[in-house]
UniProtKB/TrEMBL annotation:
Domain of life (superkingdom): Bacteria
Organism: Mucilaginibacter rubeus
InterPro entries cross-referenced by the UniProt entry: Tet_reg_excision_RteC
Record's protein name: RteC domain-containing protein
One protein family per Pfam: RteC
């Protein structure tokens, strides 16, 4: 019951936030409006927990692992985007591009500082859920960063860092949109007219599998390229909309384990078949 009511409240919150995006009001006023709406929604969540109890440990884990972080992520995202926009230099396109690239590096730094938790998040691990997403669990401090304002009745060891990961993915998408706009893609170094145009005509989820394979094996920029950057580059160069990285990862991880990376398995089989044919 708690989970269903919380999810319904999240839908309502998103509608409120969309209204602020549609209003032609100053950025500071828009931020204040959004943060007030988010605080009210989080307050409603707290009241919900005070009024009801979880029916099981599994429900508590689901709430603090998947539901509450969505609310906190929206708070982080709203503030981060405002801060990035406010700090954007009034300068040449190249200087502004460098500014956004530095912001992306800042995102990656957080992942580097929380590598274990980030992998747990990406792989949707479950082994430590009782330690990370149940209140008052005795969690080793080495696993998680310190969180200010920790409320033991409304917080667990891992819910904030998961919220930060969700928010960071959205911020990365925001930054990538600025770095790889359609106009920029057409004029980057004047290369577009000189190179062969390629268009991805397969399923977008297949390209998402490739993107995660490239990212997780650290094959681009010495392993320093983020998943949002890689997907953004693939989208521009293959003229395709892959979608949000986290959503795509959810689609992949929800598949049956025997064929979770169907396209990569298909690629491997095709390469091995060619090798076998050549060696026959």
């Amino acid at each position: 019951m708690i989970i269903e009511e919380a999810k319904a409240r999240l839908v309502q919150l998103d509608e409120d936030l969309e209204l602020f995006d549609e209003m032609g009001i100053p950025a500071g006023q828009k931020l204040n409006g959004k943060l007030n709406s988010i605080r009210q929604a989080i307050g409603d969540l707290k009241a919900l927990l005070n009024q009801q109890s979880f029916s099981s440990i599994e429900d508590e884990v689901q709430f603090f692992k998947y539901v509450k972080p969505q609310f906190i992520a929206r708070q982080i995202f709203a503030f981060d985007v405002f801060t990035i926009e406010a700090g954007k230099p009034v300068d040449t396109a190249e200087v502004i591009k460098n500014y956004f690239e530095q912001e992306l590096k800042y995102m990656r730094k957080f992942y580097d500082q929380n590598k274990f938790m980030h992998q747990y998040y990406l792989l949707d691990g479950t082994e430590l859920d009782v330690l990370l997403f149940v209140r008052n669990a005795q969690t080793p401090s080495s696993l998680i960063p310190d969180v200010q304002g920790f409320d033991p009745e409304f917080s667990t060891a891992g819910d904030y860092v998961f919220a930060r990961f969700i928010a960071n993915e959205r911020v990365q998408e925001f930054l990538t949109d600025h770095l790889y706009s359609p106009q920029e893609a057409e004029t980057l170094s004047g290369m577009t007219k000189r190179r062969v145009t390629l268009k991805w005509t397969g399923d977008a989820i297949n390209l998402a599998e490739m993107a995660y394979g490239i990212w997780l094996t650290g094959q681009v920029n010495h392993g320093n390229a983020g998943i949002a950057e890689i997907m953004g580059w693939l989208e521009v160069n293959f003229q395709v909309n892959i979608g949000r990285p986290f959503r795509r990862w959810q689609s992949i991880s929800s598949r049956k384990r025997v064929s979770q990376v169907k396209y990569l398995d298909q690629m491997k089989a095709a390469i091995l078949k060619r090798l076998d044919d050549e060696n026959a």
